Amino acid sequence: MSFGPYVNGYYDVGAQLPDYLLRKTQEAVARTAAEKAAIVTAEQFELRRERLRAYFRRMIGGLPDVKTPLAPVCTGELERDAYTIRNIVFQSLPGIYVTANLYVPKGDGGPYPAVLFTCGHIEAGKAAPIYQKVCIELANNGFVVLAVDPVSQGERMQGHDPALGRTHVRWHAEHTYLGLQCELAGRHIVRYFVWDLIRAVDYLSGLPEVDASRIGVTGNSGGGIQTLMAMIADERIAAAAPCTYITSRESYMKTGQPQDGEQIWDEAIAEGMDYDDYLTLFAPKPVLVGAVESDFFCVEGTEASFDAAKRVYRLFGREEALSIALAKGTHSFNDELRRAVVAWFVLQFRGPDCPVRLESSLLPEPVAALRCTASGQVIGEYADAVSVQADNARVLPALRERLRELAAEPLRLKAAALAWLRLPAGRDRIRPRVVHTERLDRAGRNMEQALLREQVFFFSEPDIAVGGTFVAREGAARHRTAVLVLDAGAGAIELENEWIEQLTETAAVFAFDTRGMGAFRCRAVSARAFDQMFGTEYKLSCDARMLGTPLPGMRVFDVLRALDYAAQRDPQAKLAVAGKGFAAIYALLAGVLDDRVDEIELINMPRSFADIVDSRFYRYDVRYHWYNVLAHFDLPELIAAFGSSKRISVVEMPDVGDIVRF
Asked: Is residue 179 part of a domain?
């Protein structure tokens, strides 16, 4: 028995979770705006800057303590009339190979100013023709340019299989796929982007052709956020032009659009880090905000963040150092935007009297000509190449040792789990709405053995409706109420007949849907598949992460509220929880946290977060984005720590696929 649409017509739950997250965001943005409004001196701003920089370093999991040898190698060179292109490979960390193209102007005008070029989301990376044009035009104007392949683009596909000659993970998904593994371990894929950029600046600074006091950075889209990373992390950057990325947090959330893994900065909203802060952390050094009129990074947010950043630049008496170039067109580093960026860098680094050379026709190189490796990929080319996953997994032994220590002290482990979940506050008395009741005769049995089934919903917290189906066998001796959560929702109990039969022998069962699940699943916020990467579940989970209130914590809270309802309905009954599939994790956590629960049944629950970090390839699920969870708990340790005080049953059942009904 499932709820009908709109909870049988009683309540519209379709927008409740997106609205809840947007409301929390708006509250946080208002608090941040008040904090910024109180800053009236450069000295006050410096305190904010240092706090946000500390947050950034903490969020990415810190940076390596030692700069190891870059060991740069030039693997090829192209001679052109006005410049030379060198194909370069260096190691940002031992075994982490970075591929790059170095454009060096010809002539005796050096040492030259330099620009680090960061690539947006194009598979070809540095060799993409639209990006080559930016580099060529800068080189024509007397700049050394280093265009770097980021992780998972160009020649740095981390899932590349040399035997197959292809990658196991779609290139556009790799940032998020790898990012999930980093997140579980308390790091961030941003850590690798940032360190590659810092080491790229090291390489540029050591070149005799480069004036190390005049190094800039630019890029658009994914390259725009990399530009911002460099601005925050490397003091040597003297000027920056982040393009087609700056908007505002609130504006972008309203669009319903997702972002790649490197663009989701956990707790950013809670910490007050908005897009204008990306700019002002660089103040008072010169910045050009590159934008296009019809970007999906909505221009209203761009203008709002630009205006807010201007106020900070004004505190330093450098308002003119922050400018904006608004080109026509849609999301790209198009011709108009490229020319504005090149002219701006000429002004900043070569002076107002230097003419700007802009050509109507630029001829990019064939992609193959810019390859730095013979095979086209560093994975497989170098015997000692280390993937991001393998480097990230090096932290696992220390994390596992800490988890073993926590498991030996259940109360500490419970406190650590609570600290990670960040449950919503407040658990007022529940006011249930019983919206449908029926008694079903069981074949061959009298009415004393009928099943009572009720559809119930209530508010877990203000404006968040949850509920499910309460099932009890009338006339049976019941000493327990079991809250049951299923991946497919409470309506899926129709497919769990034998399990329900077994449970209802001695217990009432409350098959329950948390927010965003089953009958309480929200409407899609985009056209992408709901449960896939970049779909609705992913997008809302990312919003919650940036708020510092993880969606799993909200769902565990809902299960706790279901236990409150069960206890309120029958105060004499003992409480149990059960779950199947991923939802079993919510059941386990609620059962561990609630002292009233003495029995936990888990079927086909994922085994371990640590196993995901330790595997080069794993089965991706959007629900696994649990940032820094392994610093707090893992599933085997929870079971081991509480298995003696609560009866915990862990069952593995074969997956026989969908049931076909005739």
From this structure: no
Residue 373 has pLDDT above 80, yes or no: yes
Write out pLDDT tens, residues 188-208. 999 999 999 999 999 999 999
Alpha-carbon span 600 to 651, nearest angstrom: 11
Q: Does the structure show a pLDDT above 50 at 444?
A: no
CA distance 309 to 281: 9
Which letter does DSSP use for residue 357 in this model? -
H or E stretch at 99? strand 96-105
pLDDT tier for residue 98 given thresholds of 50, 70 and 90: very high
Q: Residue 441 above 90 pLDDT?
A: no
C-alpha 377/C-alpha 154 separation (Å) is: 8
- The H-assigned helical ranges of 351-503 are 378-381, 388-392, 396-407, 410-421, 497-503
Q: Which of 605, 631, 652 is the last residue of a domain?
A: 605
Task: Note whether 540 and 438 are same-domain residues.
Answer: yes
- pLDDT band at residue 645 using 50, 70 and 90 as cut-offs: very high
Q: How far apart are CA 545 and CA 269, in angstroms?
A: 9
Comparing 503 with 100, the larger pLDDT belongs to 100
Phi, psi of 465 (to 5 degrees): -90, 135
pTM of the model: 0.94
Average of per-residue pLDDT across 32-37: 96
Total number of domains constituting the chain? 2
Looking at the fold, whether 437 and 545 belong to one and the same domain comes out as: yes
635 assigned to some structural domain: no
Q: Which domain holds residue 357?
A: 58-151+189-386
How far is CA 371 from each of CA 172, 374, 635, rounded to the nearest angstrom?
20, 7, 44
Q: Last residue of a domain, which of 386, 421, 445?
A: 386
Q: How would you class 447 by CB atoms within 10 Å of its CB: exposed for 0-12, middle for 13-18, buried for 19 or more?
A: exposed
The structure tokens 């009954």 sit at 573
Domain membership flag for residue 48:
no
Q: In this structure, what CATH number is given to the domain that contains residue 125?
A: 3.40.50.1820
Query: Among 399, 400, 574, 580, which residue's Cα sits nearest to residue 478?
Result: 574
| Beta-sheet strands, E only, within 441-573 | 451-461, 464-473, 480-486, 507-513
Place of tokens 């049995």: 445
Does 101 lie in the same domain as 3? no
Which residue's entry shows tokens 């709820």? 3
Phi-psi region of 482 (alpha: psi -120 to 50; beta: other; left: phi over 0): beta
Residues 88 and 28 in one domain: no
pLDDT of amino acid 328: 97
Q: Is residue 173 part of a domain?
A: no
Rounded distance, CA 423 to CA 556, Å?
8
Find all residues with CB under 8 Å of 346, minimum gap 6, and list them.
141, 142, 354, 356
Q: Are residues 24 and 72 in the same domain?
A: no
- Are residues 249 and 210 both part of a single domain? yes
The pLDDT value recorded for residue 660 is 45
| Tokens 């936990």 -> residue | 600
Other CB atoms within a 10 A radius of the CB of residue 410 amount to: 18
Least-confidence region, from 3-7, 578-582, 630-634: 3-7
3-state DSSP percent of the chain in helix, strand and coil, to 5: 40, 20, 40
Tens of pLDDT, residues 483-538: 999 999 998 887 787 787 778 777 899 999 999 999 999 999 988 999 999 999 99
In angstroms, rounded to a whole number, what is the distance separating the alpha carbons of residues 356 and 652?
68
587 shares a domain with 445: yes
Query: Same domain for 215 and 291?
Result: yes
* DSSP letter, residue 240: E
